[in-house]
Amino acid sequence: MDQLRIPGPTPCPPEVLKAMGRQMINHRGPEFQKILADVTAKLKQIFQTKNDVLILTGSGTGGLEATAVNMLSPGDKVLSVSIGVFGDRFANIAKTFGAEIVSYKVEWGKAADPDAVKKALKDNPGVKAVLVTHNETSTGVTNDLGAISKVVKEAGKLLLVDAISSMSSINLPVDEWQCDVVISGSQKGWMVPPGLAFVSVSEEAWKAHAAAKMPRFYWDFMRAKSILVEKSQNPWTPAISIIFAMDVALDMMLKEGLPNIVARHARVAQLARDGIKAIGLPLFAEESHASNTVTAVAGAGGLDIKKLRQLLKDEHKIVVSGGQSTLDGKIFRIGHLGWVTEKDIKEVIAAIKVSAPKAGFTGK
Amino acid sequence: MDQLRIPGPTPCPPEVLKAMGRQMINHRGPEFQKILADVTAKLKQIFQTKNDVLILTGSGTGGLEATAVNMLSPGDKVLSVSIGVFGDRFANIAKTFGAEIVSYKVEWGKAADPDAVKKALKDNPGVKAVLVTHNETSTGVTNDLGAISKVVKEAGKLLLVDAISSMSSINLPVDEWQCDVVISGSQKGWMVPPGLAFVSVSEEAWKAHAAAKMPRFYWDFMRAKSILVEKSQNPWTPAISIIFAMDVALDMMLKEGLPNIVARHARVAQLARDGIKAIGLPLFAEESHASNTVTAVAGAGGLDIKKLRQLLKDEHKIVVSGGQSTLDGKIFRIGHLGWVTEKDIKEVIAAIKVSAPKAGFTGK
Fold first, then answer.
1. Angle A140-A263-A151 (CA atoms, 0-180°, nearest 5)?
2. Of the partner residues B215, B216, B238, the one whose CB lies closest to the CB of residue A59
3. Phi, psi dihedral angles at A85 (to 5 degrees)
4. Boundary-marking domain end, from A229, A255, A281
5. 88-127 of A, contacting B, C-beta below 8 A
6. Which of A91, A110, A107 is nearest to A99 (CA)?
7. How many independent structural domains does chain B possess?
């Protein structure tokens, strides 16, 4: 089996895979109702929130779409804070459903400046909501969400956060930071296969929901909440197996403890960055905001990134990601989130050290 | 382990559950590309089509929403042929996104009359598309889709078919019947856990797609097709485990052979209906159009349906479904689709025979 070191899907522990193989049960029966209630309660602990948390069957991108259509009306002005592919995607979704986008784009590899967000909100008083990516998977950058939240909430705007690749791995206290909607996906730090999105919904977000006029049916938050409260069920047949798996993974996470998980991700990420620098390869992300779930490495010194990735796979059974969009061929990305230890990342760094010269890297 | 006899999710064979427990791989890597291409090719065989078949991560209801938003524009007039809860849901989705619904509703328990569809199309020449449920899970009725298709296509309309609980179990030759979009879901006859929807898309449907203006992003058929053709990938991270499981289940299905599967479902359903009648309970669906995947049984002779279901579960470890919407408490439903044999249904009938008198059934 290859060692999967991409920023999602992430490897799953054996206990989780065993849960994936459980036989089906009635999704409208008492046994499943209890599991869904338990998983929801445990999710809230990791989200550090008293807000509602809803489980949607779909990819993370489905969670982004759900957020847009539940919070906005056609014609609403929203500020998009984009630092990469996924920030652009969030804005693109809102635009597709009729939002008017005010765009604050940051050079890829850098984080958003909270002061610039403040200024954009001042310059555009009609903005209703701010779309922001907590952790940008495409560039390996983590935004300073606490500081951004401060300026957004001071301005009285709705804060909609893509935390797909950060929640459960990087500290994100939803209530403390007053985030209105926060989205994550099962295949990231949760150590579970893809197929579920999670969203937390604040009281203020529910008020926005009541006024929001973008058309929605499958993704409707209120349909999900009503039947959850009333019957501990999902409105549509959910991905039962993945909920079984989440139940097991969340127990593992709560046993380790969120602060310990966050600290482990920080240690592992530091090891990755130090290792890459020791090899002499440049980090793509500005180090002050480097992500603790994914490290992006730039090409340099004659390195053929495609060849490096092939060598890592063929000779070391290690799979890392390439770059997306305009970064294709220009960076590679090491995922270190979820079920990952120092030992795993040391192996990855050792393999890169051996393989880089074979892939043309001359050192400088 | 209970015997799950509800109309989805259905029990999964051990080979399928084993595939569900496979470790994650890169959804953008060559190994997964091959699996996705294989699964797509095998799906086309069961759909009996040369049309595109797309795999979407979501519930069956997501497949219905996807179909509406990819085929229609706000203001489009559509004929809804509804014979139950799921027919109503399909119309409700289209309406939510701005379609104007012309409603042909049939008394629950009965099938749609193709002549009435013909008349409705004649009376409403502005209709662009017809929404029809092949097999109505809520009532246990299968529409005569071949005959309905004939009048719809003679009138030159787009035919959008909810085949969530029929495709792979009941004969539905997509090309022969000229169905433009046909939707199914993994947790039905496919013997796989929930979390994926499948849609076939005809050439005429692609023309409609190009003109359709309902907003769409996550569900966009063209995004799914482009990356499938170009890279054998999904646009968003798919439910990898469920695609692994489909790969195995489709091999089992093709080994058994579609005509044999269809014949097995017909035999098993006949056993269910004969067994229920022998006990003296009335079938809810008109027998000429009774479904071969789900049998709906009406209450009679003092039968307490809720109590019967509880007895079946407690004393026989058999789970059957209740009624939905206004049929709650008035019918129960036996699912017999996917991984099901004559022996399974004989056990269910034997258990009902023993339990019905304990649940108040006096025979007449």
1. 60
2. B238
3. -55, -45
4. A255
5. 92-93, 96-98
6. A91
7. 2
SS3 at position B330? coil
**Is there a single domain that holds both residue B109 and residue B237?**
yes
CB contact under 8 A, B214 and A216: no
- A256 Cβ partners below 8 Å, 6+ apart? A264
A97, A218, A334: best to mutate for the B interface, most B CBs within 10 A = A218
- Quick one: A300 and A247 in the same domain? no
Q: What pTM was estimated for this model as a whole? A: 0.98
Instruction: Summarize the confidence of residues A114-138 as an average pLDDT.
Output: 98
Residues of A in contact with B227 (CB under 8 A): none
Could you say which of A93, A187, A237 has the minimum Cβ distance to residue B217?
A93
- In which region does residue A359 sit, left (phi positive, over 0), alpha (psi from -120 to 50) or beta (all else)? alpha
Are the C-beta atoms of residues B6 and B293 closer than 8 Å to each other? no
Regarding whether B129 and B229 lie in a shared domain, the answer is: yes
Cα–Cα dist A141/A7, whole Å: 12
Q: Do B27 and A194 touch (CB under 8 A)?
A: yes
Q: Which of residues 126-185 of B touch A (CB under 8 A)?
A: 185
The token pair that represents A319 in the structure block: 């799979």
Last residue of a domain, one of A255, A277, A293: A255
Residue B336 has a pLDDT of: 98
Q: Which chain A residues are within 8 Å of B75, Cβ to Cβ?
A: none
pLDDT tens digits, one per residue of B189-205: 999 999 999 999 999 99
B154-184 tens-digit pLDDT: 999 999 999 999 999 999 999 999 999 999 9
Per-residue DSSP letters for A50-71? SSEEEEEES-HHHHHHHHHHHH
**For A42-71, what is the mean pLDDT?**
98
Identify the three-state secondary structure at position A103: strand
CA B225 – CA A147 distance, rounded (Å) = 41
3-state secondary structure B205-262: HHHHHHHCCCCCCCCCHHHHHHHHHHHCCCCCCCCHHHHHHHHHHHHHHHHHCHHHHH
Phi, psi of B276 (to 5 degrees): -65, -45
**Which are the contacts of A14, defined by CB distance < 8 A and separation ≥ 6?**
none
B48: containing domain: 14-255
